[in-house]
Amino acid sequence: MTEFLSPQEAQQPHDHSRCVSHALDAAEQVCAREGARFTVLRKRVLELVWQSHKPLGAYDILETLSRDDGRRAAPPTVYRALDFLQEQGLVHRIASLNAFIGCASPEHRHEGQFLICLNCHIAIELDASAITQAIAGEANAHGFTVQGETVEISGLCAQCQEAA
Amino acid sequence: MTEFLSPQEAQQPHDHSRCVSHALDAAEQVCAREGARFTVLRKRVLELVWQSHKPLGAYDILETLSRDDGRRAAPPTVYRALDFLQEQGLVHRIASLNAFIGCASPEHRHEGQFLICLNCHIAIELDASAITQAIAGEANAHGFTVQGETVEISGLCAQCQEAA
DNA sequence: AGTAAAGTGTTATATGATAACAGCTCAATT
DNA sequence: AATTGAGCTGTTATCATATAACACTTTACT
User: What's a Pfam family in this record (chains A, B) (predicted)?
Assistant: First the structure.
């Protein structure tokens, strides 16, 4: 079975069709395990989210569905699919961009942390325990119980720094 | 001169008028230092943002300006004031809530980290070097140059846990 | 086949943010 | 004190993101 690329690899040029097919395969498995219905629409939306390593807006997805698929789609159609995919841990929402990106490791539930390049707009997903631990420590010091974390770091990726 | 309250203190019942007046005083100083104009509108918007320790939406501010102040205000009026206040480091925007909150330490420039209570909606501002360091470490490991960070932790604050 | 639950289509609307231009205010200069 | 120009605010229109409510369809299960 193919593997998801590491953050380093995902930044380099690569055969992205493998990312997509692996993501869809992994999604099939997750949904099967959860007894969730991975419908044609949901699969297509996930495929579109995975069309690159850049976060994609809901209305971008909507436009593609209407234009390329000839599917009549209004916003709720897309948002419902995205809600489902988020519930299954297959996509993450990037709050600072109002956009969505495929999860790089859907087999275990987590909230990603993201490095977002201001130049090329790639979003590199991390799941760094060092960050989670630091947050947990601070939260604990304030008697705060963590339920969810939004960690979105903007800056320049390695590729774009070299180019500049 | 009064001081801003610590996160712990801000969560307790307190004389909030002191928070407001201190925030306005501090803002005067920051603007004076920067040679920026702290106009009536900007001051009033900052005061409204500081009306509690909960993030406030732009349209909430707008409504108050129109209703209580009898000031004719459209969205750009509020957003421009908020933009200015953010530039001066006097308010932070909470991306996950589309809302704004007064900065607890405007004397030095920073992006806050926030603990946001899902129950009472208070937002506790941190500036924890442990978190910043952890993020810097991970970013560095990926050759990523950090320019901005969004760290918003949702959960239950100490008060609300006790209550439950 | 019948039924209930889940999924999708459809219309309308809520919510958050910005573009573009007009008019006003105030501080610095003359 | 009058002038002037940059910066601030008002105003209208519009864009962008997201959800509510209800109808219809598909699916899984009996």
Answer: FUR
